[in-house]
Amino acid sequence: MEDPLRIRPARWTDKDLVAALIADALYPSPLAAWLVPDPDQRRQVLTGVVGIWVEHAMFFGDIHLTDDNAAATVGFHRYRPIPPPANYRIRLTDAAGDHADRFDLLDSLLSTKQPTEPHYHLAFLAVRPDAQKAGHGTALLAHHRSRLNRIDLPAWTTVPSGCERLYVRYGYTPRPPITLPDGPTLNPMRRNSRRGSAMPINPTHPVDNRWQDLHP
Known about the structure:
- This protein is α+β, with helices and mostly antiparallel strands.
- The chain has helices at about 15-25, 30-35, 40-60, 90-95, 100-110, 135-150, 165-170, and strands at about 5-10, 60-65, 70-80, 120-125, 155-160, 175, 180, 185-190.
- It has a single domain, classed as Gcn5-related N-acetyltransferase (GNAT) (Aminopeptidase, 3-Layer(aba) Sandwich), CATH 3.40.630.
- Helix content is about 40%, strand content about 20%.
């Protein structure tokens, strides 16, 4: 019988590893192709932009890794509004170049769906391509669920089409989908706290979530 996967908090020295892991997992997805149509530039751009948010989560959230460094979650503690990453506009332009407008559009579409009450934002759940279908995603979601149950806080995430059933198993409920212009459909999902919070959404006052919410 195989030992269960162990999950640990990421350290500052893990941030580049986590950014590369997420970029590798995201690279073949329709969303990544929409964000960066040029396959020769895609991995570099994704790694650079994801790296901004991985670093930001070290200050305003948390990152967890499986002990084999093959899968990770990145989340933000949105007990109150949090600031954008330092020098975000300059850093996004440096990382994404001509593709920055696509990331901005994704930001604006996601922000209209984001809850306005305190919640936990599961921004990324990624499994390295060579480790997929080996239980890493379910192990991370089980760990994620146990942590949410302890803090009893609502949660929010966005997943690609086809992944909803897995998240439903861990307490998430689908919300109306978002279809990107000439692009794929994304599916916002919420998880209520045990107190049954409805997590109000106010599209006239979007929160600053930028482009995170990519689940390869």
